[in-house]
Each structure stands twice: as C-alpha cells, then as structure tokens.
Design a protein that fits this description.
The structure holds 2 protein chains of 2 kinds.
Chain A (H helix, E strand, L loop, with lengths): L1 H32 L6 H18 L4 H29 L8 H21 L18 E3 L2 E3 L1 H23 L1 H11 L1 H6 L4 H23 L13 H11 L4 H21 L8 H12 L15
Antiparallel strand pairs in A: 1-2
Helix pairs in contact in A: 1-5, 1-8, 1-9, 1-10, 2-3, 2-4, 2-8, 3-4, 3-8, 5-6, 6-8, 9-10, 9-11
Chain B lengths: L1 H23 L9 E8 L6 H20 L7 E8 L4 H13 L5 E4 L3 H5 L2 H7 L3 E2 L6 H4 L6 E2 L6 H14 L5 E7 L2 H16 L3 E8 L7 H9 L4 E4 L3 H13 L7 E3 L7 H8 L8 E5 L8 H13 L13 H14 L5 H8 L3 E2 L8 E2 L10 E7 L5 E3 L4 E2 L7
Parallel strand pairs in B: 1-2, 1-3, 3-4, 4-5, 6-7, 6-8, 8-9, 9-10
Antiparallel strand pairs in B: 10-13, 11-12, 13-14, 13-15
Classes of the chains: A mainly alpha, B alpha/beta.
Chain lengths: 299, 401
C-alpha cells in the first residue's frame, strides 16, 4: 500500500505546484483590487495556446516560450485593468458597491478569451505541448517520476521564489504591497496607484499564462481547459486568499488530497475534492488555514 | 329530388377526391416531384470536425439518388442548417426547418446531447428525426416513435463489443475499465460488466472519472493495484490521452490496452498527444466501420466524395454520414409514392441492410431505434501501422440494458 500512497503524494505535489501558481495569480488580483478574477482559468488556457504558437508556429525554444507567453498575457491583463476596470471604477455611483460590476467584467473577459481562442482553427482538436524535459523515468524508491514532472516542479518553485523576492525586496514589489494594503495612504506617499493596479493585473495574468505553458505538456489543451481555475480557487481559499505562501501550501495539499481521495475513496470523488476542501475550510477556519486572525479592513 | 341526389353525388365525388388528395398531401414538405428534407450538423464552432464531412457525405448520397431519378419520381431537396452541436441551436434549427421551411422530416445531429434537445419538439409535432451520426444511448434508448439514430453504435454497443474483444481475442480474465462518470460511462460499464459475466471474466477495477479530470494518477494506480490482464478505456479524447500516458508511465505496457473509438478520433493525433511510444506496444482501438478509415472497403466512398468535392480532403468522420442517408432513402422507397410522415416511420422500422460502410447491418424495429450494434478492432503501433484484428463483435441489444 505504501508505494501507492507515496506515488500519489509525489504526483499530487507536482500538480499541486501548478495549482499554486494559478492560485497566487488569483490572490495577487484579489489583493490589488478586491476582485476574484474569473478569467484566471482562461488566462491559463491562453498561456498554453500561446506557448504552442511560440513553439510550433515561431519555432522558439522553451527558454523563450515562457517570456513570450508571459509578455503577451501581461499586456492583456494590464490593458483589461486600464480599459475596463478603471472605467468601471470611475463610473461608480457613490454608496453602491462597484465590485459586482468588476467581477462581471472578469467573467466577460473569460468569455472573450474563450471565444477568441475558438476562432483559431487548430483549437478544434485536443492538443498537447511537447515535454519540457524528456528522458527515462526517475525512480525514487517505489516512486516513478517523469523528467517532465521534475521540470514542472522546479520551474514552479523558481517562479514562486522569484515572486517572493520581487514582493519582498524590489521597489515595485513593495509599492504593490503598499497599494494593496492601503491605496489611499500609498497615493499620499506618491505611489502611482492606478499604475500599480495595472502592474498587479499584468503580473497576475502573466503568472497564469506561465502556469498554462507549464500545464500544457502535462495536461491537454482545449478551449475549455480554463476549468482548472476551480482547483486554484480551492487552493487560494485554503491559503486564506491573502497569503501567497498559503497558496503554495494549499495547492500542494489539494493535489495530494485529490490523489488520496481517488485512491482510498473513489475515482468518482476526485472531482468533488476541491469543493469538499472549500466547504471544510469555510466551515472550520473561514479565514483560511494560513491566514492570521480575521481583521477589519481600514477604509 | 333527382337534381338534389345528382348534386350530392357530384359533390361527394369532387370533395371526396379532394379530401382524399388532401388527406395524403396533409404532410408538409412533399409535392408531386419533390421531397424536402431538413439536414443539419455542426458546420462551425469547435465540434465542426464531427459533423461537416458527415453532412457532406449525406448530401452526396442524396445527390447520387437524384442523379438516378430520385425516389418514386420525386427529387430530394435539402434545406441545410448549422447546429454548432449546441442544444439551443439544434432546437432552434429543427423548429425553423419544421415550421418555416416546412420540411417533410429532419435528418441531422452529430452530438447526442445536442440532438436529444430536439426530441420533445419532434415527438410533439410528430416529425420524424433521423440522426446524422450522433450515437449516444439517451437519444434512442428507450425508443421513442419519431427518433432514429446511433448509426455508429450506442455506448452500450461500444462497451459490449470492447468487453467481448478483450475477453475472446486478448484472452482477458481480469478486466480493468476506465470510464466516465456520465451517461456514456454508465452505459459502457453496464455492458462491459454484463458481457464479462456471461463470458466468465471479472471486472477487477472500474474507475469512473470526470471528463474534466486533471490528474489520472489515483485511478491508474488503482488499476495497477487490481492486477488486470486487459485494460479497457472508454474515455473521451482528452482523458483517453492521459490514461494512455499513465498506462505507459506506470509500466503497465505488457497488459493489452483497448481504447473505445470516441477517445481516438484521429489515431495519429492521439499518438502525438500521448508522446510515448511505449504506450503503443500493446494498443488496440475499436471502430464501427467495416475497415480501416482508408482501407479497401472504404475506398469507394472516398472516391465518390472526391468526385463530388474535388477541393476537399475527407476527414475520418466522412463515411459516418452515409448510413443514415441510406436508411432514409430505403425507407422512402419502401413507403411508396403516397408516403406520409407516419408511413415513413413505419417503413424505417422495417429497414435492415448492409451499408457497406459500417461493420454490421443497419436495422430498426418497432422497439429498436439504435441502428448499428457492431465493432471491429484495430491494433495500432502509434506510428503508421494499423492492423485489422479478426472478427466483427456485436452487441445483442439486451445485455446491460
């Protein structure tokens, strides 16, 4: 039994790392604009297709595919913030919440991306990107891992470490954090709040796009692949929707829980795992497993 | 009095004839020299590949019939619509064809979930609906009077024939089945279990997975732990690729692996997506056709298609559109010149013929609306090697029902 459990855990960590990346993307948006980005899944899917275009259409090596996908989707995310969200905020009626309109804006963006992708002829079939790294399987005792899995995990860890450094040690990262904590105070000390919001959206979108490129060789690409966002939402909720390390732990926990449920309960129950986790966390610890005590936000 | 009787006799003769003529001509879409058929399939959107060439093939068949003089002196006229394989579009298209274009009956549908959406309307309006190449069980089981389909075989047929092939040809005694947790998967599992029981084999693992599953690790570890001697997958294209990847990844390639046709619409594309030659060391897939898609028995249809559409290369789904059109023209012939919608349905119920397209006969009956119940199997090496396996496997229409 233990070899099966270990294999399930190892595989869960690999997929969990990618869920974590998408979850971080959702949390960055949430922290910058109090909005859940329902187009996050479609940004992941678009990243996969952009990766395919760069690899097969432009003939770029993987090393350049990631920045290519990240840059294109960064632009889409930033422009969405500038064109749609900023205007929605400007037209806000005093006393009425503008958040609903902003969330609906993200739902609209998801439809626009999916519709645009479907127009492209080669999205009619199920596709898969070539492996990021190929070779004989790696045996760690009873656990079998593909080179691909190791590459995905390492890439996810590197990206998460880079994000940690970015938010902790760079001026822009610190400005982004300040803006997310108190936009009015940030503006008073000279931080360009709107520019920071655009940057946060662009960064989150780029992250989702990179996750798409990482997922596309492991999973398959169809215009409906964005559904993976449900798993990322569960990971973000485990992490408390405010904590980036919490997203990482949430993603990995979810990946492992899915496999354990599949092995010890039923394969049929795998798709229920994220919803069960969401409900459990909301019941037991609504602020998330990795967030502090619930606080009242300053206005 | 005599005048009155004469007038009555004349009126009876005149109105009687008129009434008789009206009674026969009561059904719309049929004139002395034309039968109008509403033909539809996905011609745009992501599921175009399933329907466009099948629709073109049906159109080609009708053109051939017209070239030979039509049916009972009537030429077939088509009103063609795009249903995008969307339930809402199918309902709108069928309503438009029936109420605006006044077609005699409708012929179309390449996706079961969408085609089923029109069932209530055609049943209420008593308009026959012959599906183009949609094959899901829910459309035809239990049977309803006006809906005919499954010319490629239902999922019960897919499950039963896969199980029989796995047990008889691959010598399986311990079968593992990976199926979806939807109507398709339930139908597959029902017949796999029933056939296995009849033939003395055991289903040692039944993994019901979501069509949207992202990680197949757990189900495939369960399969490996069950120690099967044959693995059957009835998954759709995306999950089928993931199953084949894990099958190779977890070192199960000494166990024969049989994949249902719905998961491998284009074998070369499937192999490319799997991306692991080891997965094809012991790999088989099913097909409702009577030969490989480019095999000798399919060549005459390919040649006919190229003659009709010289600028278009047919896809693997092209010939799937022919049997339904053939069944229709046979039923129209059987129903005679005074055909009505009801007599057309009665005639369809007596159809039983070899289409020379699919592996088994095309047949309906009073209590049968699924046209085809047979499959062949092909060994595939993941490159260009497709080897036809011996035998045609048939579902008896009862097991697992």
């Amino acid at each position: 039994m233990w070899p099966l459990v270990l294999q399930g855990v190892a595989s869960g960590i690999v997929t969990g790392c990618v869920y974590a990346l998408i979850a971080i993307s959702l949390v960055i948006v949430y922290k910058s604009s109090d909005v859940i980005n329902f187009a996050g899944g479609e940004m992941v899917m678009l990243g996969g297709y952009l990766g395919m275009f760069a690899l097969l259409g432009l003939g770029l090596p993987y090393l350049f595919v990631f920045p290519f996908a990240a840059l294109v989707i960064f632009a889409i995310g930033a422009l969405f913030d500038r064109i749609v969200l900023t205007r929605t905020l400007r037209r806000a009626v005093p006393g009425q919440s503008v958040l609903v309109a902003m969330v609906i804006g993200t739902v609209g963006l998801s439809y626009v991306i999916k519709g645009a992708v479907r127009v492209v002829p080669y999205t009619e079939e199920v596709r898969r990107l070539p492996p990021i790294s190929a070779g004989q399987p790696i045996f760690l005792g009873p656990v079998v891992l593909q080179h691909q899995d190791v590459a995905i995990t390492l890439a996810a860890i590197v990206i998460m470490a880079a994000l940690w450094a970015f938010f902790g040690f760079t001026i822009i990262g610190k400005a982004l954090r300040a803006t997310s904590q108190n936009p009015r105070a940030a503006a008073l000390v000279g931080i360009p709040v709107r520019l920071m919001s655009m940057t946060a959206w662009g960064l989150a979108a780029a992250l989702a796009g990179v996750a798409g490129v990482l997922l596309a060789p492991k999973l398959l690409l169809t215009p409906d692949s964005g559904i993976v966002v449900i798993l990322a939402l569960a990971a973000a909720i485990i992490g408390g929707f405010t904590s980036l390390p919490g997203c990482v732990a949430g993603g990995i926990l979810l990946g492992v829980v899915q496999n354990m449920i599949g092995q010890f309960v039923s394969s049929r129950a795998i798709s229920l795992a994220p919803f069960l986790v969401i409900m459990l966390v909301l019941l037991v610890r609504p602020q998330g497993l990795f967030a502090g005590r619930p606080t009242t936000k300053k206005v | 009095m005599k005048r009155l009787l004469l007038a009555a006799a004349v009126s009876t003769a005149l109105f009687g004839n008129a009434l008789f003529a009206r009674a026969w001509a009561a059904d719309p879409g049929i004139t002395d020299n034309e039968i109008t058929i509403g033909l539809f399939a996905p011609m745009s959107g992501p599921l175009t590949a399933f329907g466009l060439d099948a629709l073109q093939a049906a159109k080609m068949w009708y053109e051939e019939i017209n070239r030979q003089g039509g049916i009972h002196g009537r030429k077939i006229k088509l009103v063609i619509e795009d249903d995008k394989c969307s339930p809402n579009d199918v309902v709108a298209v069928v309503k438009k064809l029936v109420t605006v274009d006044n077609v005699f009956f409708v012929h179309g549908g390449s996706c079961t979930a969408a085609a089923v959406a029109a069932q209530e309307f055609v049943t209420r309006e008593k308009v026959p609906h012959v599906m183009l190449n949609a094959s899901g069980d829910s459309a035809v089981i239990p049977p309803t009077r006006y809906v005919f389909g499954a010319f490629g075989g239902t999922q019960r047929t897919v499950g039963a024939t896969l199980a029989e092939f796995a047990i008889k040809e691959l010598k399986g005694k311990r079968i593992a089945l990976i199926a979806h947790d939807d109507d398709y998967g339930v139908a597959n599992a029902a017949t796999v279990k029933a056939v296995a029981k009849r033939l003395g084999a055991e289903v040692v693992a039944l993994e019901s997975i979501s069509p949207r599953i992202t990680d197949l690790t757990a189900p495939m570890l369960n399969v490996r732990a069950a120690n099967p001697d044959v693995i059957i997958s009835t998954c759709y294209p995306g999950p089928a690729v993931l199953v084949a990847q894990k099958y190779a990844e977890f070192g199960m390639t000494r166990i024969p692996f049989a994949q249902a046709v719905q998961g491998i619409p284009v074998p070369a594309g499937f192999a490319k997506n799997v991306g692991n030659d080891a997965a094809f060391a012991n790999f088989y897939y099913g097909s409702p056709l009577n030969d490989l898609t480019d095999g000798p028995k399919q060549q005459k249809w390919i040649a006919m298609y190229k003659q009709h559409y010289p600028d278009r290369t047919p896809s693997a789904f092209m010939t799937y559109g022919l049997p339904s059109a053939m069944a229709i023209t046979r039923a129209l012939e059987k129903a005679g010149r005074n055909v009505t919608r009801e007599s057309f349905v009665d005639a369809l119920e007596t159809v039983d013929f070899d289409s020379e397209v699919v592996a088994g006969p095309i047949a309906f009956a009073k209590d049968r609306r699924d046209a085809h119940r047979a499959s062949i199997f092909i060994r595939y090496d993941g490159k260009s090697g497709h080897t036809l396996m011996p035998g045609v496997y048939t579902w008896d229409g009862k097991e697992g029902r």
